[in-house]
Design brief:
This protein has about 325 residues and is an alpha/beta fold. The chain is about 25% helix and about 25% strand. The protein has eight helices and 15 strands. The chain has a seven-stranded mixed sheet. α1 links the parallel β1 and β2.
Length: about 325
């Protein structure tokens, strides 16, 4: 898709947009490569933790530690905001999991436009949660894409892509960490390609587009009627936030570290506890096969391995997750 880039191109004045941990490797890579970060746009401080106290985004924390200029508008639009970023005189905007759709005035303000670091091989998995859905759908390969931003979400021309295998028991948290580093690498390579006029910006094939909508707590509930493999994908794909969950004895519990037993035969109702083993976990019946659950988190408590959890929560064969 593109020629191999070389390092040592012109220093760019970069306006960086990002909010969560995923964006940090890209921000750091730009700085390490010598580019001038003229400003950082991130989402405003949000309530966090049990006390629901306002906390800055990971990107804001790092940007302020580095002495970078930070903007945190509720919505990135309006003449006042446009005036602020215009005064920064960026050559290009780099966006990595910022969290808002940008309008045409914002996208076109820098002379070199706006590019995005996206955690999938576009046009596959356009949307807010590509890392989660790569695992939820049982994909074996995903990757990162650097694309030119347009008004339609994740639909712009592809500048550079790097594929990456998904491990057989990898969680979305683990995969997201790897892809964040890979995205930073791809970003620096894409900027070099652009500086050398070596980038072949390829339009996406709309007929092959798939979507990765935002995940929420309601969709994170486990459907035990699915196969053991699908339940495993579900638990691994939602291991962090919001966390896969089910009810047990009227109490909502989060579940993690599944080890599916695909050929396990049983005649039990899906969700039924088939076995408990402090070393292996809790074996739960699925629509086809069964899966061991290695970690459980009760409401208001920390996540615990099943061996520790069972000491305070007696669980018998025949009990049922719902």
């Amino acid at each position: 898709m593109a020629k191999e880039p070389s390092r040592g191109g012109r220093v760019l004045r970069v306006l960086f947009w990002g909010t969560p941990l995923f964006a940090l490797p890209s921000l750091r890579a730009l700085t390490e490569e010598g580019h001038d970060i003229v400003g950082v746009v991130t989402q405003p401080d949000r309530p966090s933790g049990r006390g629901r106290k306002l906390a800055p985004s990971p990107v804001r924390q790092v940007a302020e530690e580095e002495g970078l200029s930070v903007l945190a508008p509720e919505r990135p639009r309006g003449e006042g905001f446009l005036g602020q970023i215009r005064d920064l005189r960026p050559d290009i905007s780099v966006v990595a999991a910022y969290g808002h759709i940008l309008d045409s005035e914002v996208l076109s303000l820098p002379p070199r436009g706006s590019i995005n670091v996206h955690a999938s091989l576009l046009p596959e998995l356009r949307g807010a949660a590509p890392v989660h859905w790569a695992i939820l759908r049982g994909l074996e390969t995903t990757g990162v894409t650097i694309m030119r931003m347009v008004l339609e979400m994740d639909a712009g021309p592809i500048i550079h892509q790097i594929p990456e295998r998904i491990g057989p028991f990898e969680t979305s948290t683990e995969l997201g960490t790897r892809l964040s580093e890979l995205g930073a690498e791809a970003l620096i390579e894409a900027l070099a390609l652009l500086e050398e006029n070596a980038a072949e910006e390829v339009e996406q094939d709309r007929s092959k587009a798939t979507f990765a909508p935002k995940v929420d707590r309601e969709m994170a509930r486990v459907d035990w009627n699915r196969t053991a493999q699908e339940v495993g994908w579900h638990l691994r794909g939602l291991d962090g936030v919001p966390g896969a969950w089910s009810t047990l004895g009227g109490e909502s519990v989060k579940l993690d570290t599944p080890v599916p037993e695909l050929r396990f035969r049983h005649g039990a109702t899906p969700g039924t506890v088939l076995d408990t083993d402090p070393a292996r976990g809790v074996l739960v019946a699925c629509g086809k096969g069964a899966t061991w659950i290695g970690e459980i988190q009760s409401p208001g408590k920390k996540r615990m391995d099943v061996g520790a959890w069972l000491k305070g929560h007696p669980l018998n064969k025949g009990n049922c997750f719902e």
